[in-house]
Specification:
single chain; 189 residues; alpha+beta
Length: 189
């Protein structure tokens, strides 16, 4: 695997850990912890209560490191890690070795997960379930409510395919949303 591909693989693994933690229902973990206080030792119980936030914090920190250690061209037009100035970044290689040792796998958001996240958001926002459709595009999914709620009229929810992040967008057609969302992810919008 070349250096740039290794960095992309490492970034995908870190996003996967964050996505898995974000998909986890913290209320379900709290209920499970309360129901099993006598069955678990104090360390396991503590991990059950804090593991989701620990995973989110750790993956956010690793995202910062992986973002800093990206590849680009140096003044001599060589492909190098922009943080280290070398062609094979030791930081990325070390992180990828650890992630590979623990066999983390990337789990991008799929249509049912996008629906679950959008449903939870609309229910939390409106206080009631909202009928909606889910439309896929390369970078994510558009959740279109059948009847726009008064809290977000003329808007749709976009669920990121890689990390499950939710953003509210004007109710453009899917092709326009896909194009604008692509620009948003690149930081050019």
């Amino acid at each position: 695997m070349n250096a740039r591909d290794l960095r992309e693989w490492t970034a995908a693994q870190v996003r996967s850990a964050m996505t898995a933690a974000m998909r986890t229902d913290p209320h379900a973990l709290d209920s499970l912890a309360e129901a099993n206080t006598g069955a678990l030792d104090p360390y396991s119980l503590s991990f059950l209560r804090t593991g989701r936030m620990l995973t989110l914090a750790t993956s956010a920190a690793l995202t910062t490191v992986v973002t800093a250690h990206r590849y680009g061209r140096d003044p001599h037009d060589r492909l190098v890690c922009l943080a280290c100035g070398v062609d094979r970044c030791r930081t990325i290689r070390s992180i990828s070795d650890v992630l590979a040792a623990y066999a983390l796998q990337a789990h991008p958001v799929d249509r049912p997960e996008a629906w679950r996240r959008a449903d939870a958001w609309y229910t939390r926002t409106t206080g009631n379930p909202v009928r909606m459709s889910i439309e896929a595009f390369d970078e994510g999914f558009v959740a279109r409510p059948a009847t726009p709620p008064p809290e977000a009229p003329e808007h749709v929810l976009v669920v990121d395919r890689d990390n499950g992040a939710l953003t509210l967008w004007p109710a453009y057609d899917t092709a326009t949303l896909a194009s604008q969302y692509r620009d948003y992810r690149r930081g050019t919008l």
